[in-house]
Design goal:
single chain, 208 residues, mainly beta, Immunoglobulin-like, three-stranded antiparallel beta sheet, 1 helix
């Protein structure tokens, strides 16, 4: 009887352990904000780089094209804490893929990377006050940066001198988006016919 009861007791304990680990709770949280913000870019968000002759490209070095600018406007229904979260719709295509701050300009022939973009925010004015751009990688810690990047969120502050920088609420904001395009070295591209430059970036509003 003893030899029979010990395995049964062990089996009972094993079942109890399995039952205890067979479920998990899912909690859902969030906030419904009373105000919404609408972003817009000048020229409908379209940046035309024109036709670039292949002979004007550097053979074994990147070719930096002239900087371009678009104006960003954020219009909110009331004072609102917001951040911009860019997404690269051509992820994996920046030719200098070791730089996580840049956006891609698409691929040709399946794996040839056309180039990359770097975006900077300048001349930020919100509600008649000069603002400074700050970034955060999904946490409550913010640091000064002028860069719009696919790897972090960008918000705005009136004061970047205090140790604990935090975003400030805005209602209407304007800023210049400085766009720095670069084409990959010509010897990495097949240039026997026209090559499309195909960058695509989405700027999502995150409510803080």
């Amino acid at each position: 009887m003893i030899n029979l009861l010990l395995p049964l007791a062990a089996l009972t304990l094993l079942c109890a352990t399995a039952q205890a680990a067979s479920s998990i709770d899912l909690s859902v949280s969030g906030k419904i904000t009373p105000s919404a913000c609408e972003p817009s870019l000048s020229n409908g968000g379209v940046l035309e780089l024109g036709k670039i002759p292949a002979k004007d490209l550097n053979l074994d070095q990147p070719t930096r094209l002239p900087d371009k600018r678009l104006q960003l406007t954020l219009t909110c229904q009331a004072l609102t804490l917001v951040a911009l979260k860019p997404s690269d719709n051509r992820a994996g295509s920046p030719f200098d893929s070791d730089n996580p701050l840049k956006f891609g300009l698409g691929l040709i022939n399946g794996d040839e990377k056309v180039g990359s973009l770097l975006l900077r925010l300048e001349s930020i004015i919100a509600d008649d006050a000069a603002m400074q751009p700050i970034g955060s990688v999904g946490s409550s810690t913010w640091a000064p940066t002028p860069i719009l990047s696919p790897t972090f969120r960008t918000s705005f502050t009136l004061d970047r001198t205090t140790p604990d920088i935090v975003p400030d609420a805005i209602q209407r904001l304007t800023a210049d988006v400085l766009i720095e395009p670069t084409i990959a070295p010509a010897n990495t591209l097949t240039l026997t016919q026209e090559v499309p430059i195909d960058g695509s970036i989405t700027l999502d509003i995150n409510y803080l």
